[in-house]
Amino acid sequence: MGVDRPTGQGRAGQAIGWQRPSLVLAILTLVALSATVLAATPPRSVNPGPFDSTSLPTATSVPHGRWAMQTTGISAIIDDVSCADGSHCIAVGAAGVILSTSDAGTTWSSRDSGTTHPLVGVSCPTPAVCYAVSNFGDLLKTGDAGLTWSISVLRGRTPFAISCPTTVDCVTADGFQTHDGGESWQQASRLGGVNLACPASSRCYAVRNQLGHGAILGTSGAGWTLQTVTPYFLNAVICTSVTTCVAVGGGESGSNILTTGDGHNWTVQQHQATEQTLFDVGCATVDVCFVLDGTANVLTTTNRGQTWAWQSTGLVGSLYAISCPARDSCFVVGSGTAPTGGGLVAHYQSEMTR
Fold first, then answer.
1. Average pLDDT over residues 7-17
2. Which domain range does residue 336 map to?
3. Is residue 186 part of a domain?
4. Sign (positive/negative) of CA torsion 117, 119, 123, 128?
5. Beta bridge partners of 186
6. How far apart are CA 303 and CA 259, in angstroms?
7. In 95-202, at which residue ranges do the beta strands (DSSP E only) sit?
8. Does the residue 272 lie in any domain?
9. pTM here?
10. Residues whose CB falls within 8 Å of the CB of residue 188, separated by 6 or more in sequence, listed in order
11. CB neighbour list of residue 69: distance below 8 Å, 6 or more residues apart
12. What is the pLDDT of residues 88-129, one digit of tens each?
């Protein structure tokens, strides 16, 4: 995910009350950002502290399932994970770490990436083909389910994240694209994003931060256009179809969760929490999604984002990234806590399949 993530503090079983941000603020911000939407963007913010949920009502919208820690044997922090299906996943992290599994995480194997740069993004369109990026411009590809990796380098670039809807089409968060399976890369736009999701080759969404605000951009093959802005930073976006997506983020004075059902108009839900940052989001179905905030708990919805509630995972550590390859399965990655430390991988399995 491309940021230094401090260990957070836990909370469990609390529902959230949401408010819409000021319409005037949104309009003024939209005007300010429209002229500079393709300029360079600063890195996303980190999570500066815990969240006080003592005044919130009891949770009412929690998926039924179990989170279980998996063994990696890796001491480095794991920053991102992508699963092509319920069995095959690739996880990446600090010092060029790459882990792969072909048995739903029963066993994870360490792979040689060919770089010691931290890997911050990974995307697997199929079990065999995956792409990964570092913030030093490294672009990695495997065609054999992670056994071997090839590297190309973009000098002076920081991709931050990558999304590959097919085995030959990929887009990075800073606007580089390939349409020939990584044989060549071109910077189609100076996107300056921190995260993106491409549910199809012709449709992508990206989140970026500028001037203390977040912005969502979309493309349908004819260049990127600004769709909406928010009062707070945005860190991640995920789509369950070409028109149904969720974006999350936050900063010093609050956090946002946004949803769209038509691929153009976004509904903003503002959570008034002090110094709250949401790092990543994954959706097992169009109804069920999980949001990570750098603690061992997750923010959940079971009704397409209409209501959200905190759920305790029972894990120990900090969760930074999530991938949900099936309606009953999600994988999360992050870091363990002292004194054990090390890379963290865990698996969520819904109650209906256990």
1. 33
2. 23-353
3. yes
4. positive
5. 177
6. 12
7. 98-101, 109-111, 119-123, 130-134, 138-142, 150-153, 162-163, 170-172, 176-178, 186-187, 195-200
8. yes
9. 0.84
10. 171, 175, 176, 177
11. 315, 316, 344, 345, 346
12. 999 999 999 999 999 999 999 999 999 999 999 999 999 999
- Residue among 145, 115, 146, 112 at smallest CA distance from 133: 115
| 330 CA to centre of own chain | 13
pLDDT digits (tens, 9 = 90+) for 277-327: 899 999 999 999 999 999 999 999 999 988 888 999 999 999 999 999 999
Q: Span 316-342, mean pLDDT? A: 89
Question: For residue 148, is it within any domain?
Answer: yes
Question: Quick one: DSSP state of residue 289?
Answer: E
Contact between 250 and 236 under an 8 Å Cβ cutoff? The reply is no
CA pair distance 89, 204, nearest whole angstrom: 22
C-alpha to C-alpha distance for 286 and 304, rounded to whole angstroms: 6
The number of folded domains in the chain is 1
Query: Is residue 94 classed as helix, strand or coil in its secondary structure?
Result: helix
Sort 353 into a burial class: Cβ within 10 Å, 0-12 / 13-18 / 19+.
exposed
Q: Do residues 217 and 209 lie in contact, with contact meaning Cβ atoms separated by under 8 Å?
A: no
Place of tokens 């900090």: 318
C-alpha–C-alpha distance, residues 177 and 160, integer Å: 14
287 burial level (CB within 10 Å; 0-12, 13-18, 19+): middle
For the chain, where are the alpha helices, taking DSSP H only?
Answer: 23-34
189 in a domain, yes or no? yes
The structure tokens 């093959």 sit at 221
As given in the structure block, the two tokens for residue 110 are 């360490």
Task: Tell me the average pLDDT of the chain.
Answer: 83
Mean pLDDT of 326-346: 87
Domain CATH code at residue 225: 2.130.10.10
> Ramachandran region of residue 53, left (φ > 0), alpha (ψ -120 to 50) or beta?
alpha
What the block records as the tokens of 147 is 């056994």
Tokens encoding 3: 């940021």
